[in-house]
User: Fold these one by one.
Assistant:
Number 1:
Amino acid sequence: MVLESALGEEVIATNLKQFLLVLSVSLSVATLPQVFSWFRQIPYTLLLVIVGLGLAFVDVRLVTLSPELILFIFLPPLLFEAAWNLKWSELKQDLVPICLYAVLGVVISIVGVAIALNQLAGLSLTTALLIGASLSATDPVSVTALFRELGVGSRLVTLMEGESLFNDGMAVVAFSFLVALPLGKVEFGLQPILVQLFTVVGIGVAVGSLIGFGISYLTQRFDLPMVEQSLTLVSAYGTYLIIEDLGGSGVIGVVTTGLILGNFGSRIGMNPRTRIIVSEFWEFLAFFVNSIVFLLIGDQIRFASLGENLQIIAITVGAMILMRAIAIYILSNLSVKITKSEISLADQTILWWGGLRGSVAIALALSVPTLLIEREKIIATVFGVVLFTLLAQGLTIKPLLQKLNLLGNAPLREQYLELVARYVALERVLQHLQTDQRPGIDPEFYRYQEQLIKGEITDLQEKIDKLQVEYPNLRSFTTEQFRGELLAIEADTYAEFVKSGRLNKQLSPMLQDVLQYGGETEG
């Protein structure tokens, strides 16, 4: 008994050391762009993969990566964070193309890759289908992070994130069915496939909705930011585990819960200050988890295994890219016919090339049962394809955005906001200087400082006016920013009344409709 206890403590200590080592390396990589400006050209997640590859090349293995670790520890927070921040108002506008990409797109990808591997590489149909299913889930984390950094249009971000959230669930469902098929656990046929699909998706949506709405109404009863933050964390993991135990799709369940809490629960059950606290917590958690996952993806690569399966990997990459193009361009045109909402050719091209594969694909490949003879070949192929998408596609997405003129004006807005912030700060300094006349200070000092500050304010005003003349869109951006500040002041005032006990419930915003109406009238 003592021996078992000692061994258990040693295992825990070893795992803790490995975890701290991974975390230290990840955080060190995060500082590289701040120290060396050249690294800022590479998305952070891809930089982690490259560093992981370097460690794998010299055969330094940080930790043994297991599929359970990704699926049960890493996947729920990543899914929940993305769903929490996805606006339902934007999502529902593009729900048709997103569903087409996530459902039919997954089917096209699996079938196309499987046929290519079966006919060109000579793999068995079972192995080919499992590889296709593993790689049918897109994981554009690094791409969407780059989009936000560069100020790319919000619709493109919504399309990519929405597709990724929903097709993760479809890919897991398809993979689970195909894994069970050779083991004799399910029958092949249209009816069994549809029954299982509706069962796992239905359980996921039903339980996810129940948990999401339940927590939403529960948080209406109190205003405790730390408790509400903890509830969102428990809901992410709890939803996944409960639904998986019930035989449903934990991925679909977590996405459903995240969408409800982010778009409904946080509005009716959290005051604005709490929502900010929870959002910042999930932003940190997503950064934390992504840092570990992408570093380990690179670190787990076995170069010898990749070399042995190079031909299969090349065929898979070609088939996957071709099937992605077919799915995006055909389904986008189908969506336009249904909704009459145009998706530009440039946006379709980015959706095609930005369909990277990542942690979900690797987790699915690693979860292939050891009973299957070609398991190692599946894992090597999936790792190779994921590596190609992250490096080749991930590093070329920015030049492609530039080529298609899709880069936003984020740097310009940042420059403009810096000038505005300095202007407001100096105005406040000047106001303080004019009202706080202290004894013992020479009046001439006040006059001299006042002239200096007024001169700086004038210079800043000229720079702001020049930018507004050169870029007229900044005026609407400024108006929207100021409108947001007014709404925040109203919401913070209600929160203060609730906190002090002068109100028993959080009031819904009144200015939102008033200011919107005023803007429309003015227009």
Note: The chain has 21 helices and no strands.
Number 2:
Amino acid sequence: MKKSKAIVVMLVLVVLLGFFGYTAAVGVGSSSAGSASDIKLGLDLAGGVSITYQVVGEKEPDAADMADTIRKLQKRVEVYSTESVVYQEGNDRINIEIPGVSDANAILEELGKPGSLYFVSETDAEGNLNYQTTFDATGEPVHILTKDIETIVAEGSARLSGTDVKDAQAVSFKDQMGNSEIGVDLVMTSEGAEKFKAATQNAYQKGETLGIYYDGEIISAPTVRAVIADGNAQITGNFDFEKAEQLASTIRIGGLKLELEELHSKVVGAQLGEEAIATSIKAAAVGFVIIVIFMIAVYYVSGFAASLALALYVELIVILLAAFEITLTLPGIAGIILSIGMAVDANVIIFARIREELATGKTVKSAIDAGYKKAQSAIWDGNITTLIAAAVLGIMGSGTIKGFAATLALGIVLSMFTALVITRLIMNALFGLGLKDAKFYGIAKEKKAISFVSKKAVFFGISIALVVAGFVFMGVNKAQTGNILNYGLEFVGGTSTNVTFNEDMSLADIDSKVVPLIEGITGDGNVQTQKIDGTNEVIFKTRSLSVEERETFSSVMADNFAVDTEKITAETISSTISGEMKKESVIAVAVATLCMLIYIWFRFKDIRFGASSVVALIHDVLVVLAFYAIVKVSVGTTFIACMLTIVGYSINATIVIFDRVRENLAEMKRKDTLDDVVNKSITQTLSRSIFTSLTTFVMVAALYIFGVSSVKEFALPLMVGILCGTYSSVCITGALWLVLRKVFPQKVEE
């Protein structure tokens, strides 16, 4: 690159860094679009709207009906945010929490009042009208009931109920003339399809409409133009998309098994408190500075180029999180941490290759070109493998998993762009500015291959011992507490305690003065706080408290803050992670793992590479599970994010080593054994394994050092996972691949 062009590139980069930095910090326009403050935050980081519904009726609702209603409501509210949660409170109440919004009335209006929904024939068996249609001043049809709904149901004119509807969605489509139309697509259950066939046949033969009754009125009465036998129907008419979505939403919410009425709604604060955000930002800043210093100290000019690219990466990810309206939660932060680690990783792989090329006597320019060329396969394979996992988790997962997958996918794409494009542009520009001496880049020294494979029995033994220890402690925990792990309230439910203080306490005071006292009672760091906007009330969510612990709680509040104990109320709450969500999570992870295995098999032409990677991945998960069991770290929402982060991190580290094994196999000499090839490959990538793990570890360690207790409980297992992932990729995977080659030899050798 010529000097003039290099100057232009650097000037453009400085301008972009300044512009994107300003946008990320301040934003654009009066709405501060694109700024960090414009990012949607989850309930754990920013709070939102909390709505409590009461089941209508004197009889206590059936547990199965409550579970079904919660599951359907969960799917409904995920329209607002994938981080929305629905859980049971007491015996007959359901609580909905939607992050990132502050207008409870608007949500209630859009969500609708959950109640009975029926599809009603226009006339009864005797030909009498169940409802009649008139028109208002604007020409809009108005449907008026001529009987009460109880009579209509008793007479058999209510052909279907809401529970017979599987789904309802607003859609845009083209009519026969090619014009755009808006409608509502209905999908019935298998049982509902039969009922719907009979209902449409009756209406079609009589030339009647089929009314949709909800919450005391007929909300729509579409004309039936054919008998519908497959359970799939479409309601058309003079709709705009907003009206169609409102009708679809009403039909979906009317499909609940229980009738609900709003008990109260309120705006609540962050579950983790504002200190969690402040400490996370501080940790990210400290971690970033340490990584920059480390990269420059180790890789000189290359490290400086990578640091500039990494700064641009951080700015862009803030802007894109806001632009794509991705809801950021603590698990989402985990996805970003992993993607930053992978951004550093890509640079480290490239720089190591450049140093190796310089060691062969090539010029700096040739070494840079060759380094990027040789590093690409490892970078592409590692990132695509993790991206496949993120895609599967995003499609099949729910709630927190979707948020994690979205931030991880965005981070991976952006990290690849900055590493392969931006860093290279900067390095070429710096070279063009006169930094052409090899000493500015570093020259790799010849390293004697370390015999990792010869110690495989020791490594396998350590791993087996750790995994077995985990199962032993799980058994001990099961005997002592009834659970193999210290499950938090997200998994097993807990107690929600509402405390009215005598003054409007700040979140900082609550975090520093109140929460430690509660942790002393529960012996658990998983305490979620939510401040009710405009009041002195604070909700504390903890593990399930016994009667004695609830009394102690009240006494502590009275003794330390002069709280009136009569104003302290406590309710048992269900888990926010339902059995359905657990099942979906397990299936999503299993499918993601299978997809990664297939991709590795396809890319490496040897399923034993993929099998070794998956075994190492399972090993890392089991070792971290052992840590959870032994240390009794609370298992909450962040547990899922922690495990997913470890899966992504582990597979990427292994891919880098196997990429080098693949390359060295092609250059294998007659005197070389497979053991020699594996040892050489691990040694060649050892600096990458150590440096990448170190930089990612620093980011998480900063979270642990500066974070509040709930953040610490997330960061600590993640640090263990990073160390374990590094250990398994270096000490286990290569040796395991050799073992599999001997046990399952291919008929035709590569």
Note: DSSP finds 20 helices and 17 strands in the chain.
Number 3:
Amino acid sequence: MKRRVLLFLEFMMFATMSVSASTMISANNPNIHYFGRWDFSDSLAPSHSWPGVCVYAEFEGTSIGVVMNDNFCYYNVIIDDTLTSVFHPTSASVSSYIVASNLADRPHTILLTKRNETTGAKYSFHGFILENGKNLLKLPEKPTRKIEFIGDSYTSASGNEWIDNTKPMEKEAQCTNIYEGFGPITARHYGAQVQMTSQGGYGLLLDWQGNYSNNIPDKFDRTLCYWNLPKWDFEQWIPNLVVICLGLNDCSGFNGYNQTVGRDSTLMFKQKYHDFIAKIRTVYPGVKILAVAADHNDWIRQTIADVVTEEYASGKNDVHFTSFPKYGTGAYVFGDHPTVATHHLIADRLISAIDTLDAWNPSVIDTLPPRMVNLPVSPFTVYDTAFVLKFETDSYAIVHYSQQDIPFNQMELTCTTTGRRNHSTLLYGRHRTMSTYYFRAVDIHGNEMKTSAVVQFQVDTLQYSIPWTSERYQDAGWFTGTAPLGTLNDGVNKTVFSRVTAAYLRKKFSLDSVKVQGFALTMKGHDGAVIYINGDEVYRINMYPDSAIGYQSLAMGVPSTSTQVMGFNSKNGLLNKLKAGENLIAVEIHPSDPTRDIAFDAKFYDAQNKNYFHLGSNWNYSARGSIPVSQIGEKTSGVPETQSSAPPARFQLLQNYPNPFNPSTTITYILDRDGCVHIDIYNSLGQNVSTFVNDHETAGIHSVSFDGRQFSSGVYFYRLISGEKYDVKKMLFIK
């Protein structure tokens, strides 16, 4: 153990690197592999906050540097499969560092692995620095096997390189090396990709101090651990196996190391576990799940074993159980956390269990074609010549569509958002004309719809629809009541309404200014909620993040706490949803069980604790047993009737799909009039490498397929020109 600490101290500081005679490799270079959860909202500066994230590349030359914005994390620098140093960036601004030098002048590999957790912060990677004239090399494919580990500080390997059982908090990041934790050790044994979704102190239901809001399932859909947005796109990385190792902190939160955990607490824990397993199945079709108990306490082992038994009893055979014991003297450091050697012992137990699971084949071979759900009932009316159609499939799928009823592979259009359960695309029609579109889908197992789903609509441009969440909606006919509102009369000052599956609430409030650094909305109630500000959905509480919400939608489960606080700040992008003057908040409430009662209260306040509305204030609400019906508004139109059948007055170049692509992609564009059309392809240097389209075309929607096999990997731009109008978009080709 002491030898590892000395190695760390020897290499933890690096000099800032001169870049005057160097080759800069941007973070979006296709020859960089990223592992773990990264936020690519800025592809030139991807950020991270979960532990164990990795960057891998192969390069030429005798040295390599990195560019980062990071003054906290520690990273293993593994060159040619050998740990050469531990790197600690020290600047809270974008800075450059040498991480390896004096190498042989030949190709090398670099694996940069984040060792520690972060607390309430995120850090960004901006690329590599190579010697002048050197470059990254083409990468092999990523391993096909994938394992995700979900857990707490044990899974995060907290303090595993410390020297004794003391726990100096300022040393935690320095002496933690998740690469030598049981998760990555197990993954390396199988040659598998690994994703670490773990956070010290958190549990399945509550944290080690008994706080129900600090649990891993509630953060499971986050790209960044401490940021509600952006949501993690589960479809982009589907593991074969998920290993859950939670319960230690829950036991502490229940005071279970000193007394017997009560029956109600045990039932709550088990229900949360079942709900979490159901969520994992939903986002990862065919996954195998290994529920692991740290056998430090009879309650942990027995309760988790009972959960697996109950899953089997319900007909689910994709969940398995194993445990590891409390090891002997010298096996724990840093406040009773496993040493590196102990992590290897735990990994051995996991490997033995995984070897019995057939972990790399799906638990269920799905042969059913995907099914489209939540499509509007046809025919229906829309109020613009272009509108966004949103719907779902019951499994991950690619959706094509056409105005002809033809097979999937012959349909010329692809939904703008697709490849997962939620799909959307922009459809076009003409005033007072019925339009018909046909949709088909193929899921990730290759199952194809054999008949089309039909969407049929007509356009009335002289009217518009006003949903109940809109500021223009007239809610004068709604009920008015004093919060708390609900269906249970508990004898206190409460507005009581009849039992319903969902309730809908609205309130207007005024802000003098939105220059305040932050606002907060506190909501109280043991239900699920969807929150809208000025017509836009901004937040979900205890509701499935990837699903369309209807009247019959239910919450994910009974929330662990009755109070939820939502922040409006620059970090989560919600501050710009507010405006000076009058604002509208709209909320829909859904119970986890339709036989349960609904309860609701809320207040809104700013960073100076000024209240804009209080708990117990008045709300307008609808509790009539259905979604409030949208209202119809009349437009004032100066458009002559003779122009009503003109093509949609929109010129648009859509994003290519798929993107990135290999070897081909589809480019879709809309012309607002007949005319000559040019589409040119440019490389990253601005050089025209292809005139892709040069023809006279009619107004309407057009799609063309671009084959990039003759080009090298990299970023390209495609430009559409028609008459005096033009548009440019970027695409990424990866061989």
Note: Residues 263-283 form the longest helix (21 residues).
